Amino acid sequence: MKVRNSRRWAPRGRNRWIIAAAALVAAAIVRTALHPLLGPIMPGTAFLIAAVLVEYFCGLAPAFCVMVVGLCLADYLFVPPYGRIEVIDQSDIRLLVSYPLITIVVITLVERLRRAQYRAQLLSAVSQSRYEMLLRHDNERLLAGRATDEMHRMLHHIAQYNRSLILIKALDPANSAPPGSFAATAATATYSGIIEDESFRAGLAYGAKHSQVHRDDLVRVSERLVPGHHRLRFLSSGQDWHPVECVCERFTTSSGEFLVLRTED
């Protein structure tokens, strides 16, 4: 994979130039402190090290500036005759050839290594992002498959207990899918024999048994229906009300969450 941003690994702003200037000053101070001991030996070594360190932390442009300025300081301060640039001898030529050559080679290698490191970091970030996307898509696929299976189970449940159904309720939109998504189940529910009326649009669908349930009990379970067992009053043949055990089950489908209330007999 080609990464065009690999050359932009170095930080931006004026801080890197401040760091480069500080490194240049520090190299000059260190070489000046060692000058009584070293004399004209290795006049540009401290500036070479400073340029390499600046290249590693700040990038190519500050390192190149440190190299050029360091070359001038090394030739002026630490190559005899000291403090004079009128005379150019073999010491000056050796410094002008060896110091830039070695410094350019080293900072070029460091630049390539830093670009390769930054490219590897970018590729790692991209790979991590793609891996998370794959996991997210896989989870969504599993959830969709599970919701589809739950929808099939609910439809099979409706078909199996069609004659004992009391009502089907879509959960509140704040906790589940909006009742409008209930429309996908409406056609199947109507096809299965469930009575559809205006309340269906509000998230309720009444089954074949709802007309036999006491009005107060039907309103109560319609408003506060929860999964579990419920006891409702049904109209008997003698026009009397008798309690009947009912069960409510919850189904989580791709169209939302629904509660199905039916009789246990």
TrEMBL record:
GO terms for cellular component: membrane. Its main location: membrane. Gene3D superfamilies: Backbone structure of the membrane domain of e. Coli histidine kinase receptor kdpd. It holds the Pfam family DUF4118. One of its GO terms (biological process) is phosphorelay signal transduction system. It comes from the Bacteria. The keyword Membrane applies. GO terms for molecular function: ATP binding; kinase activity. Residues 17-121 form the Sensor protein KdpD transmembrane domain. It is a multi-pass membrane protein. The chain crosses the membrane at residues 48-79, 91-110. It is found in: Membrane. Keywords: ATP-binding, Kinase, Membrane, Nucleotide-binding, Phosphoprotein, Transferase, Transmembrane, Transmembrane helix, Two-component regulatory system. This is DUF4118 domain-containing protein. It comes from Trinickia dabaoshanensis.
